[in-house]
Design brief:
single chain; mainly alpha; Protein Yjbj, Chain: A; 2 strands
Amino acid sequence: METKKNKTGGTFKNTESFKFTGNWDTKSRELKTKFNRLTDSDLKFEIGKEEELLGRIQTRLNKNREEVIAIIKEGQLAKV
């Protein structure tokens, strides 16, 4: 579990490490269809920068980290 500083200088603990499995191109197209306000820039995936991806999606959708992870993982388990 990782501890980070929040905007007010306090700390919070990430309760879940984000790791995506599957085809990100397919998932990003699904997300753009479901949430038309997401852009290609919002959904740019780079290995090692998953937290930045989550932050961009959180900001654009006005959702918290756990909600964004649930949205991304939606349908992921059925395909494994």
